[in-house]
Amino acid sequence: MAEGGAGGNQPPREPPRNLQGLLQMAVTAGNAEPAPMEPMSDERRQWLQEAMVEAFRGQVDEVEQMKECLRLLEPSTPGAERGGESSEEAHSDLENREAALDLLAELCENLDNAADFCKLEGMRLLAHRYLEHEEQELRWRAAHLVGTCAQNVPKVQEQALALGCMRKLLKLLDHDPSEAVRIKALFAISCLVRAQEAGLQQFLRLDGFSVLMRAMQSSVQKLKVKSAFLLQNLLINHPEQKEALCSMGMVQQLVALIRSEHSTFHEHVLGALCSLVTDFPQGVRECQEPDLALEELLKERCRLLKDQEEFQEELDFCEALLRLCFHGQTDDNSMDR
User: Fold this and answer.
1) pLDDT per residue as tens digits for the range 68-108
2) Integer Cα distance of 66 and 131 in angstroms
3) Residue 211 burial (10 A CB sphere; 0-12, 13-18, 19+)
4) Is the pTM of this model over 0.70?
5) Cα–Cα distance between 45 and 41 in angstroms, integer?
């Protein structure tokens, strides 16, 4: 293969070593046949320089924005700042804090910004002041920000866990009166336990599966669905937890949920139950308990869902459970013979 310019007669280009070189590369990039370099007009040079400077400055500006948000949030101690403020001032202050947390959540979608946020002691501020703030609008935003920062960033996850976020988030999920807070707490918990062994161990020590089951039994549909989805994910990625879950009566509790009034939530419950019994004989035996009457329940559900395309995945889970728990043994013996 020829090197350099057309026909291989030109020496190979070196990568740009400074902004000027980068500007020249930007001008010539995309030409199928590079033309000889021509002097750049002053006007175009100035435009490109300003554009590149602005691009390189973006990350710095975002760090400054985070610092400004943290300066605004820092004075807050739950209940302490209310004494000397009028109701109008208090309302304005609350709105400013909400806006600061919203902006931080947007900025911390960038993994580098999430790491910088923690270096700026932002996670400590969330853990010590905002996850337990008296204002629910600030609690749910704080929980959302913890989760946003922790997604796929091990160092951030470790800091959040060290600051006690898991315990506080589980408490919010279990007891907070606000639906929004509970849903965001579950999101943050999910970000701290998935693909994070230390997070999972904390979750287990704090009886997280019991909290998750109670969330699945709540009256909040979105919370129920997300809790069942997390349970299914944990069972798939941590099959070693199946024995502990069975000892907690998880099979019986999941079947009880399936017997509740039918909704789209059942798809995720059936998915979790299917994951629990797959390659786990103890789970299969518990599903076969006559008192549960699960086989008839699954057959009835299959009849109900037949030819309803919107429930196809739920139907698939029902059929899979019937095979695993009530027909699998005969099939396996036939194969062995």
Assistant:
1) 999 999 874 444 444 556 788 888 899 999 999 999 999 99
2) 19
3) buried
4) yes
5) 6
